[in-house]
């Protein structure tokens, strides 16, 4: 409340707990919005929690789309509530809403038209709450002329008025400045250029309509717009760039730096290019858990075996070349188990808590951090063990004479670096968040979306252009999405038709 109403922050007049006192005295009517923005499996639990909470003993309003409310089992709980369905706005209420604007005199010609023709195109269009809001918001600035909606040559039917108002929606809401720089449910985190925002949303609307994802605008699926060769090229460059120096470091301790550099570059190139072909599922979370019976399928077993093989190669090959076959077998088995455990711990799972698009992005990013930490810990233990506790037969190739303690410290530090970077790079290359970093840079270079894409999507949600349904964004209205999609296709067609872009 204090974020949206500056008056409540006036401590001299109302004290430091004005908002808390209003709530405690029952002078605030709670309006609970966004039930339809929860994931399907969470709506019923949310309803049960609401009706079992002490808040339900006081008056409150719960807003939701009818279909989602019914699917949440509301019929069973609805006996505790009065259900109200929205209907078209009466022309008298339309007139009252427009007359309550900052300058009601500018609306008098439209009010006269509504009174004369309550069934005309204008009255029919403005009977829709969204259209009524768009009309007032679009013509609130003093530089606009509301009377242009009476032009019968341009707006002779409701559909034309509707399209005109829809076209004004995005520029209108993005034109509104943040009040006093504050943050709140309807306040964007930064100011965006309205026309560029419309261009970006038009591109995303066209993608949603054609991507086969239903209504969902999923950030992790946007990678499909990036040509596969881009990911292959990035893997071919970054893989050797990371693994080459690691190989040089590891083998250089034994006087085989050139071979280590070549070995690291080769492994990095194979791994980097190979990771570009890995099929990605939904974003992941690092959550150690017991493997359920229904997760033990032939497909997952094959994937597990693949991760075991990668782990064995990563651990056994360099150890075998440096220390011999017996340590290679031991360490290979250890790394194989580590790789498959990480793969299981970061498998996509149905969350039990409320999620948001930004939340699942952070979870997928944190997965990379956790695996880097786990790889570093295992590498530290393995490096310290190999360097300190194996006898001189396995450590005779060191380029300098060190005591067992010094060899242990050096080996542990090297193992920490190799383990953290090796496992971290593999998980990063196959993570939704890692792919999304490449995707948003690619789209920003082409001018399709802003570089800070997640921030932009969050602000579009705050301004009412998008809504959240669990981890998914959706356009607030289907005809808004379709209208923006047509604009996006027009922009793409214009771009292709320009001589320099053919």
Automatic annotation (TrEMBL):
Keyword Membrane: yes
Keyword match Transmembrane helix: yes
Assigned keywords, A-Z: Membrane, Transmembrane, Transmembrane helix
Transmembrane annotation, as ranges: 230-254, 260-281, 301-323, 329-346, 367-389, 409-430
Protein name: NACHT domain-containing protein
Organism: Phytohabitans maris
